[in-house]
Specification:
- The complex is a heterodimer of chains A (about 170) and B (about 190).
- Chain A is mainly α and about 170 residues long.
- Chain A has eight helices and no strands.
- In chain A, helix 2 crosses helix 4 and helix 6 packs across helix 7.
- The model of chain B has no long low-confidence stretch (mean pLDDT about 95).
- Among the domains of chain B are: about 70 residues; about 60 residues.
- With about 190 residues, chain B is mostly helical.
- Chain B is built from nine helices and two strands, in the order αααβααααβαα.
- Classes of the chains: A mainly alpha (about 170), B mainly alpha (about 190).
- At the A-B interface, helix 1, helix 2, helix 3, helix 4 and helix 5 of A face helix 1, helix 2, helix 3, strand 1 and helix 4 of B.
Chain lengths: ~170, ~190
């Protein structure tokens, strides 16, 4: 089981995009809902808080949402995200791209890269809660269904990313 | 046949099985496109490699056209497809916070999952950050509940907002995407 020495090049973005669009379409046709990611973390956090402090969980507008049937541990998006990890690993394995590493620009120290990764994750969680979804649940799914919120989120998030990218030029150069 | 095949109220085991299979396809496509790489994602915002825009818009257009034509031919009941809800104020604020976090982290929640699953430690830390952020946000959200639930418009869609036929918005999005692709190709040629 040795991976090929040179990882294969990534697929054409338009081909990969159309394939992703067909998966999203299949989701609409099969279960009448789109794809997502951030909701899996929200439901898992809701389930954890409900175990430790049920009152806190029930009082939170975010957590309470996941506590009804079938419960936070059987959330659709959590199962979907497990699938994402399996599919990503499979694709990378087939292309010789599985590699344990800290991906970063040479000028960015590993510890700093990990701290930024964590901090950025915290910010995205708060943003996704307010927006009721992230790049997949709002921008992609909402966008394909012509949702006003999806397009609003897509436009604002992209614009903000460009502004912050110019402020963080030193980090990513 | 009328889709969705497993509408609300369908057996949980069947919808969760579908979730797993759809997730595998989602993750496979994202990894193939290279979006499990933080440097490739971030390159979009320095105009070096516009794969994020190309993948996102070709996926969006493909699914949008599929939904439009399937419902036109009576094969898909659009009313039974869940449209993510609109909350104007929270989505404006959330979009800014999310866009900033995306540049700090280098990955979004879905692509961070791809990054982590393919061995990248930075992807794992993004996931840990998102998980911690969900705890934090969930615990303090009560104080911001009025803002969180403000400007609610439900499953509001662009054809309603602009008061034009569904097909007209679909056509406009296709034109917008094709124009964006043309500009993206030109920018990438300039960057090389």
């Amino acid at each position: 089981m040795s991976a090929p020495r040179t990882p294969r090049a990534y697929a054409d973005p338009y081909v990969a995009g159309v394939a992703l669009g067909l998966v999203l379409l299949a989701a609409f046709v099969l279960v009448g809902r789109g794809l997502g990611a951030s909701g899996a973390f929200a439901s898992t956090a809701a389930g954890t808080v409900a175990l430790v402090a049920p009152d806190q969980a029930a009082a939170s507008p975010l957590f309470a949402h996941y506590l009804g049937e079938p419960g936070p541990w059987l959330e659709w998006l959590s199962v979907e995200l497990i699938g994402v990890a399996i599919g990503a690993w499979l694709s990378a394995k087939l292309a010789g791209r599985v590699r344990v590493e800290i991906e970063r620009p040479e000028t960015l120290a590993p510890a700093r890269r990990l701290a930024l990764a964590f901090g950025g994750g915290v910010m995205m969680a708060a943003g996704a809660v307010l927006a009721r979804g992230c790049t997949s649940g709002q921008a992609l799914t909402g966008g394909a269904l012509l949702g006003v919120g999806g397009w609003l989120f897509l436009g604002v998030a992209f614009a903000a990313a460009y502004v912050f990218a110019s402020l963080l030029r030193k980090v990513w150069s | 046949m009328s889709a969705p095949l497993l509408p609300e109220g369908a057996p949980l085991a069947a919808t969760l099985a579908a979730a797993l299979v759809l997730g595998v396809g989602f993750g496979f496509a994202l990894e193939r496109a290279g979006l499990g790489s933080a440097r490739k994602v971030v390159a979009q915002f320095y105009w070096r490699d516009l794969a994020v825009l190309k993948v996102l818009f070709s996926a969006l257009v493909t699914a949008m056209l599929g939904v439009f034509w399937l419902s036109r031919f009576g094969l898909l009941d659009l009313a039974a497809v869940h449209v993510p809800e609109t909350f104007v104020g929270p989505q404006l604020a959330g979009g800014v916070l999310f866009g900033a976090g995306l540049i700090v982290a280098g990955l979004c929640p879905g692509t961070a999952c791809v990054s982590a699953a393919t061995g990248r430690i930075d992807g794992v830390f993004v996931l840990l950050g998102i998980f911690s952020g969900m705890f934090l946000t969930g615990l303090i959200l009560r104080k911001f509940e009025r803002f969180y639930t403000s400007t609610a418009h439900g499953a509001w869609i662009l054809p309603e907002l602009f008061d034009v036929p569904y097909g007209a918005v679909v056509a406009a999005v296709v034109v917008l995407a094709l124009a964006a692709f043309a500009v993206a190709e030109r920018i990438e040629r300039g960057a090389r």
